Amino acid sequence: MPRYALIIGISQYQNLASLPNAARDAEAVAQVLERHGNFDVVRRFPAQWKAAENCYEVAERAVSAPELIDTIKNFLLEQAQQGEGLIYYTGHGVTQTDPDTDERSGFLATSDYSPQQPGLSLYKFNLLIGKSQLSSLMVFLDCCHSGHFLEHDLLRQKLTSFNTSGDYYIVTASRQTEEAFYGEEHSVFTEALLKGLDRENADINGDISGDRLFDCVGRTLRQSGQEPLRMGWGRYITLLRYPPLEPIPSEHPFQTANPYRGLYTFEPEHADYFCGREEAVRHLTIRLLDSQVLTVIGPSGCGKSSLLRAGLLPELARDRLPGSSQWSTRLVMPSTHSFSEIAGLIAELTRSPQPYVLLIDQFEEIFTHWSQDSDRQRLLRLLADEVTREGSQARVIIAIRGDFLDRCATYPESATLVNRTQPSAYMVTPMTLAELHQAIARPATLHGVQFEEGLINAIAQDVLGQPGALPLLQYALKELWQVCIEQAESPTGQLTAEKYHDIGKVQGALNRRATILYRSFSEDDQALVRCLFKELVQIGEDNETVTRRRVSWARLRAIAPEARIEQMVCLLADQQQRLIIADEEWVQVAHEALLSEWDLLRNWITEDRDDIRLQRLLETDCHVWQTRFGESEEALLSGARLAKIAEWIERTQPRLLPEEEQFVQRSLDKRDRDRQQQVKLLEDKVMAEIKRRQTKLRAGTLVITLILVLAGTIIHSIRQVNRSIQEATLQSITTDAETALKFQEQLEALQHTKKALEFIAEKQGPNTLTPPNLLKIVSEVREINHFSYENVLVEATLSPNDQLIAAGGVGGKVKVWPIDSPTNGLPVKTFEKHQEDVWVIDIASDNNLIASGDKSGTVWVWNIQGNDERSFTPFPNTKSGNQQSVVGIKFMPDNQLAFVGSRGDIRIQNHDQVNKNSISLKIPTIGQIKEVEFDKLGHKLAVADEKGNIFICQLLPLQRSCKALPKTYDKAVYVLAFINGSEKMISIGENDVMRFWDLRLSKSTEPILLKANAGAGAVDAAISSDDSKVFISDLSKNLMVFNLEDKFFLNSNPVQIGTLISESSSVQISSDASFAVSAGRDDKKIRLWAIRKNEKIRFEKSEKTRKSLDKIDAILTLKTK
């Protein structure tokens, strides 16, 4: 196919500064393209004949607007028709109101520039591209404000100028608000471009693609002050081709690792093995650009999840839409995320200025896993509001099974989200024969393995036209690989038709493998497998639809001993089987295809359908009773429903969770009490009748005897009823205490326990033994106190004397509570001057002065005792108007404050002389900041970013400097904490790798991989003043304390302090290591925790709490005498 290049360099300007380097830049690019680009024509404009060398070169002469427009129009619509084109422009770029459209636009300025004739608008340039019939086009714009082409004009046109059958790659030198700079010989951008076009940047085959070129340009310009942008569309475009450095391998090396996913979903890291869906990904990308909502619809097994995760998301990460590699991406599923969690995530994403993508996979789970219809309505309304909100940068992607669309249609809020006729909707269709060939053959080819001739087509024909067969296809291919490659004594590197028939082909492979595995178990284990899979399925409201569901380990451990259930789950989730998926919290069937294709499981579901339905009803009713009705007696089971549940329990003897047992028992108790009340009413009626007759009859032996017998019976019945009432009352109070403890409300559990002990002492006497479960509650409570904040918590800090807590967050309020004086939980000070969310707080050494910084970059310094307050902005606005947020703040000696800005700037100044005599430092190279940590005295600062870089800054006079520690992390570092003053430090990264640093030598220990419930997923850490303990909170909401003795963490088992209701945004530990503080982000509570179990509590929440705890202590003391 012919290739054409147009190279434009405008040097001379009448009303703008001339650019003498522009012609030189353009000529340098033209020469590289001529030598290595395999272009049929490289046209220069303006051009002059160079007689000495018998060739053209870029001329330094004036170019008018009509000349430029005619040249580009001729190139796009005539010369390069049906071919591959490239346009390079260097010159001035300006932004102003377009006289033709009356809208602000970017312009390629010509020599005769004036406000009335600014040159070629990027809007018109876009239209010319739309009229062209190019096979592919690459555009490089080296001018100021060139990002306008991608960030505004092109987006406004929603890619209408780009024929989706063509391949395009656009690179601009800067964003629409940025200028492009010139260097000594070439412009900064062209210098980077020439570097990217150099032989050293070519791959092993000698090729330089658009992506490879941009990666080099981006790296080179990282610290230049201008940020290049790109947008790629369609296939990769090879720009240059050098001779290869070494012979090109004819095939991929042989690997035995299985490249097929079986029943598992393809994730972004498996994108190379996700093949055959390129056309679908292209259409999804088009729809996502054109709409803020993308609804992906298809039957179970059509590959929706894999298409989005391994197809669309990696494309966005490669900047297939302008700036999409910088978009924040979040994946949620209703089975693992409640409405409140999704709402909290959206609120968090909305607060960020960064565009984001929210992918809600398995959207039908709002019907199969959420019991509250109100939650479904609120989610749909929230999503609709978010994508229609003015200025919203959200893109919401929903993947839903087609058979649930009718359920969505009953909610008016879903009209803008799930609608078959909307252009934002995409129906996933069965793969074509050619696509199936790619999906089957390509993964094997990547591992150096071939199929026997004719086998690829035979397998493809077995699934062609079947919409739900893709997981079965993947499972069969995985099985085929195992028998031909992994289990073969001498693998030949070929997948054979004989083995394909042996595994049962696509239709029988899954059923065969699952049945063989089941029959290998003992009878007891087979019964356990049946019980396990019954837990993992959900029966629809129509009593016919069957779906998979995620089940917590806690529920599974109720059906069998812990060791046994864990062993069985491990076997079923084994690499060779993969019938189920398990992680630290949840277990689920690997794919719904198993529910329909495994004959045994399908039969079990049919036979046990009613039992499964009753168990799910009990689970739902119990959940509603706890969450909506607060365990009110009004929501207990009754009538026919209770009778049916009780009969099912009596007949099948199922293993229930403790809360479900309590729910059923309390329902039965209430039923019995109601019956007793009816008996009492009957007895009263009998007694009344006796008295009535007694007044009419004379006293006689028979009458007296009758009265005595009835009276004795009634008295006995009353005593029995009283005992039952007392037992039921005590059981109810005890259950409340146990439930509160289970849901991490420890102080409430203590209150209920106190009430139960008082009841025992009053009704049963002081010498009655205390029930073990109440003693257990008292011994397990570690929460000392908690204070409530009214919004999402971002930061909580402890004063140097451990007597005050200050907290701030969303909404901008800062509240201060005293720890050791009762205020009934009310703050002693509420500061409300911030206009944005508060991100950082520090309390001075005098325990009276507080500094707080917010998202907008404003800092307030204020006095707790008085009204002395002042504000300032330590980081002035940039030319573009962007303000740095304050992400770190610390009081230092000599009345100084240190601040850290969100772009790595550091400022030190006197807090009583704001904006005067400030000292500035700059972290040399930094990505998005993830963690900021000061040492206790404010002498040293540690900062970590999203790319795993860690910087140490000295803040004392004569030592002020910042340096990077040796790079040891590839991903973000979230936790930093100083030890031994500031000479040592720990760091924990996203991959759960912890390192111990000696900062004097800038060296770290060997990496320590933290384990689940022992530091893994850490989000914050604090170290005690004596360096004896470290307090850690993790993503699983656990709070734990490690001893820093004996080889650090290696020989230390953490002490579990508690479990939070929501993830902690910050933690601190008191100077004497007796208590710790956590700030629950979403439960809006600051909690205090006793470090040492059973130690005497120094302070309480209020006088009421103090009396409760004293009363418990007195009662327990009395019991031991």
Written overview of the protein:
- A hairpin with a 4-residue loop joins strand 28 and strand 29.
- The protein has a 6-stranded mixed beta sheet with strand order 2-1-5-9-10-12, with helices on both faces. Strands 15-16-17-14-18 form a 5-stranded parallel beta sheet, sandwiched between helices.
- The termini are far apart.
- Helix 2 packs parallel to helix 3 and helix 15 packs across helix 17.
- It is globular, with a radius of gyration of 36 Å.
- Helices cover 35% and strands 24% of the residues.
- It folds into 5 domains: 239 residues, Rossmann fold (3-Layer(aba) Sandwich); 154 residues, 3-Layer(aba) Sandwich (Rossmann fold); 84 residues, Orthogonal Bundle (Arc Repressor Mutant, subunit A); 136 residues, no CATH class; 263 residues, Methylamine Dehydrogenase, Chain H, CATH 2.130.10.10.
- The protein is of the alpha+beta class.
